[in-house]
User: Which sequence fits this backbone?
């Protein structure tokens, strides 16, 4: 009974956090989906003795308000307690964008007020609008790939996506309310044309030309990928590669010169003696060859002992648009910098890698022998038909390895047979995932509670945010995160504090999680190692340009603030 009571208390916090984050509320089915997406397991109905989600929430009258509509729809909304009333008010004030109004980005300012104790959500970032949902790069690439072969009617998109990728296109989980919003967010790559049959989705010509290689017959790209002097090696008759698999005795008989075939006519004793001498000679010859590597020749453009370079450090106190890609806790997460150029470069890389490695000749050419499968080896791996740059973190057994995805920040266990050598020119793009920790906060209980992590995931989920760079500690970027899509800017460290999950301490305490394991520090080379590191200014429109005088003003405001 005590365990059930504890589970119920934790669940109440999690449900309240999810419903507060949903301005319009959630249906019982949406609550189930949200919980599954965030906690990676279904609502513990059976453990608590309930038959349905509706039965569960009726036992939370202080947490959930059930709203019934004439059409029979039930909407669940949060009932804020003393510690969450302020947050609920901020979410309720979330702006609805009106077309035709001037964008926030039209008049950039240089100075900003930074977080202080006396200003929970200080007035800042007036030049930035980060409320628009953002599709992950992989999903964007999938939609572009789907349309690369031919245009699609909007009504056929769901079926075509399911048929190609084996799952439904659930745009709501990325923060979009309609498919129209999705298409608006991808207007730079997908055009919508009105026809008699309905809305037709067409890939814009510039992108279609880049993806055009996917439609080329397989035999042609394979010849292009293999150097001119090598195709003969790939087109060896099938009988020859089987020499390694055929038992030695049989192989030796095949290699006997034609003149020796007359041995069959020799007397039996002489034939046996001759065969013994020949076996000894062949054995000595094979012993000599066994000292040579048996593995196939490794292509000269395969990456062997190189590392990916990280992105240059961001300037302190600068403001930058970010998307949080992977979250362990508020003290350990990875971000992407928002910029059209960076987004396209990563998408182009993924398309090119898919094009190259999807062809059997090229793919087989870059198969990694067991001797190359070792911790620290940079390579690539196929997951759900896409290829990712990864670093081998550990070899689990003969079939599996754990890899670190340098462009997205997560560790994943994959089959060893899915690994391939990375081609040399795929080193050019720096690792895109930046290891981060939320600035100035520490968990109240020593470690982050599941409810705190769940709330942080809700705040970050598939949304372009504004990050304020504080400092780097041991290669980890400490920054403040802010949602500017409301009337008042919402600072995430203030939300965690107000919910009772975090203490704001005014300094950056090294992340315990990153101290235990920081794959980026282990495997990605810091950009500053090649001479003095140049600080990078994010693209215009994604930050407020901090000039020397304004930076000093902002610094004095932050340094002089009382916590």
Assistant:
């Amino acid at each position: 009974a005590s365990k059930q009571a504890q589970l119920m208390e934790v669940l109440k916090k999690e449900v309240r956090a999810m419903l507060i984050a949903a301005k319009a509320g959630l249906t019982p089915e949406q609550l189930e989906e949200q919980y599954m997406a965030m906690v990676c397991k279904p609502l513990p109905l059976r453990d608590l003795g309930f038959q349905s989600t509706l039965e569960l929430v009726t036992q939370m009258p202080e947490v959930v308000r059930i709203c019934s509509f004439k059409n029979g729809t039930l909407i669940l909304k949060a009932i804020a307690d003393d510690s969450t009333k302020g947050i609920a008010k901020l979410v309720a004030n979330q702006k609805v964008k009106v077309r035709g109004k001037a964008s926030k980005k039209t008049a950039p300012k240089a100075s900003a007020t930074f977080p202080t104790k006396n200003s929970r959500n200080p007035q800042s970032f007036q030049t930035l609008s980060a409320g628009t949902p953002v599709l992950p790069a992989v999903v964007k690439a999938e939609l572009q790939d789907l349309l690369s072969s031919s245009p699609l009617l909007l009504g056929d998109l769901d079926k075509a996506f399911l048929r190609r990728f084996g799952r439904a296109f659930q745009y709501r989980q990325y923060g979009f309310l309609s498919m129209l919003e999705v298409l608006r967010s991808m207007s730079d790559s997908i055009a919508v044309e009105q026809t008699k049959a309905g809305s037709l989705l067409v890939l814009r010509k510039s992108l279609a030309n880049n993806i055009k290689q996917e439609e080329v017959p397989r035999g042609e790209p394979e010849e292009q990928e293999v150097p001119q002097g090598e195709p003969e090696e790939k087109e060896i008759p099938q009988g020859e590669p089987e020499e390694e698999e055929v038992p030695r005795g049989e192989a030796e008989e095949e290699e006997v010169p034609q003149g020796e075939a007359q041995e069959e006519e020799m007397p039996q004793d002489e034939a046996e003696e001759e065969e013994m001498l020949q076996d000894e000679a062949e054995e000595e010859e094979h012993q000599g060859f066994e000292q040579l590597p048996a593995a196939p020749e490794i292509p000269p453009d395969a990456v062997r002992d190189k590392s990916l370079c990280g992105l240059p450090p961001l300037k302190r106190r600068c403001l930058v648009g970010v998307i949080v890609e992977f979250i362990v806790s508020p003290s350990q997460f990875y971000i992407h910098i928002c910029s059209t150029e960076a987004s396209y470069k990563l998408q182009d890389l993924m398309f090119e890698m898919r094009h190259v490695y999807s062809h059997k000749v090229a793919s087989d050419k870059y198969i990694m022998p067991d001797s190359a499968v070792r911790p620290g080896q940079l390579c690539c791996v196929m997951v759900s038909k896409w290829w990712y740059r990864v670093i081998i973190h550990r070899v689990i057994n003969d079939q599996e390895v754990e890899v670190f995805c340098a462009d997205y920040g997560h560790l994943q266990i994959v089959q060893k047979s899915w690994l391939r050598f990375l081609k040399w020119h795929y080193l050019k793009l720096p690792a895109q995932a930046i290891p981060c920790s939320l600035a100035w906060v520490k968990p109240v209980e020593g470690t982050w509670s599941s409810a705190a992590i769940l709330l942080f995931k809700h705040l970050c989920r598939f949304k372009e945010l504004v990050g304020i760079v504080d400092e780097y500690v041991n290669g980890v970027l400490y920054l403040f995160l802010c949602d500017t899509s409301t009337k008042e800017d919402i600072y995430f460290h203030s939300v965690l504090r107000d919910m009772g999950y975090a203490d704001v301490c005014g300094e950056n305490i090294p992340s315990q999680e990153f101290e235990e394991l920081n794959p980026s520090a282990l495997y990605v080379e810091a950009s500053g190692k090649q001479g003095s590191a140049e600080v990078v200014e994010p693209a215009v429109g994604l930050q407020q340009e901090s000039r020397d005088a304004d930076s000093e003003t902002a610094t004095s405001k932050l340094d002089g603030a009382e916590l």
